[in-house]
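does this look right to u?? methylmalonyl-coenzyme A version
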Amino acid sequence: MNVLFPALRDGSPAPALRFGDRALSHRQLAVVAGPLAERIGELTPGGRARIAVWATPTLETSVGVVAALLAGVAAVPVNPRIGERELAHIVADSAPALVLAAPDAELPGPLAALPRLDVAVTVPGEETPPGPLPAEPGDESPALIVYTSGTTGPPKGVVLPRRAIAHTLDALEDAWQWTADDVLVHALPLFHVHGLILGVLGPLRRGGSVHHLGRFSTEAVARELAADGTMLFGVPTMYHRLALDAGEDPALAKALARARLLVSGSAALPLTDHERLTAATGRRVIERYGMTETLMNTSVRADAPDATGTVGVPLPGVYVRLVDDAGQAVEAGDGETVGEIQVRGPNLFTEYLNRPDATAAAFDGGWFRTGDMAVRDAAGNYRIVGRKATDLIKSGGYKIGAGEIENALLAHPGVAEAAVTGERDEDLGERIVAWIVPETGPGAGPAPSAQELTDHVARQLAPHKRPRTVHFLTALPRNDMGKILKRELRPAAPPAGGPDA
Ligand code: MCA
Ligand code: AMP
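got this back:
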């Protein structure tokens, strides 16, 4: 299975990528990505290098990633809104040999300091013949390194081999009856698994196409699905907004109703949103469950009876088990016995980059510990009921570690103590809440405002990691050992509020 994108090598004239009014067929993609892959190969002799990709939601990012994959060089997609502290970490940790970016992209310090290769995409004529494409490396060769948050410390680089990508995309072909005729519509960012691997590499591997909206709006989704979109991928926040608008907007409801498949993932889609969408459109959204480290594990199948409220059954080739607190596999399919989901299969990552300790800790024998808690029903469907770590927050479908935000807040001179929690939020699933004890010691300036702390986190880490609410306290509740008791965190006075509280 060495070849990741057969349609590229076949020179298929079928549409492949569309961003706004710019589009490439598979054949045209081969014409532009082939020479870029060759150039990447020349600049990274030996093949063990990594390259950063400035992952804006554009044609250039998609072409850059495809070229890196053809060249057999591991690509590290970088959030174009990344803050200083997080970027410094990712660049130091992954040590990219160069950065790929669109010609007009302005890169921040640590990336600007790297050799740069511009991805200039001029759409070639359909008749332009593609040159030969480089031979692709073996299945275990690292394809992508995607950074993901843990409970504490900076994000870890998840090394994803080509084997995991090919396996997960082929398993989804089976579960969703995904074909070359499908036109996928989405507006997900291209620096995570969902938007990049499923949302761009998925259609390319199938020989089908993707229409990326650039930016999410319910209007843009309606427009593309009403045209020729057949599948929609989104995070629950997007489906929540679609559900609310579809109730008021018959054209949107009709567009959603005509799609072949509506798929939600990255976090749980609440039943109320499932019900709203079904009431407005007569259609069901199916959920699939995955993780950066495991790619996709389970899905409700396109041909399955209704399994709303579950994340479906294991994908072909993936083994899933539930393990209780004593470390014993739970055999029951009673829909009630809760266990941690552990996974084994060709969909798994290789390792955390430079973190053998974290890699070893993540496995129980050959099984990867997901930290997600679930039950299994008699039909074999898994229903996720919670998470082991309360210090992991899922907001808008992004995984965010409380510890990394606490560390960023503590680096602000006006902050003496900081704790971060996740609170239920209708739109985002969970919202980030910061609990702050301002610095009052000698020489301390005036206490920082909620807005100042919010901006500080957005600047240091990324805007989606910013607290949405900030509470100021005189002390954090702690136990005898000095450990912060997060369950006891309650606003002391009326909340000081956050910018969007
Ligand atoms: C606001 N903004 C700020 C600040 N406040 N910028 C700087 N400093 C501030 N203080 C800006 C934001 O950058 C953004 O800019 C705008 O204000 C709104 O931000 P936000 O509220 O965060 O965005 P939103 O409109 O609410 O976005 C909702 C969303 C987004 C579109 C659903 O959360 C999203 O794209 N989520 C997808 C996450 C995802 O792909 N997860 C997959 C990982 P502007 O307006 O200019 O944009 S999970 C995964 O891959 C696994 C494998 C899986 O299972 O899928
Ligand atoms: P990430 O590390 O960003 O890839 O996020 C992976 C996590 O997202 C998983 O461990 C789950 O907690 C969560 N997740 C993904 N898909 C679903 C889903 N369909 N339902 C509930 N949680 C999900």
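The mean pLDDT is 95. idk if thats expected tbh
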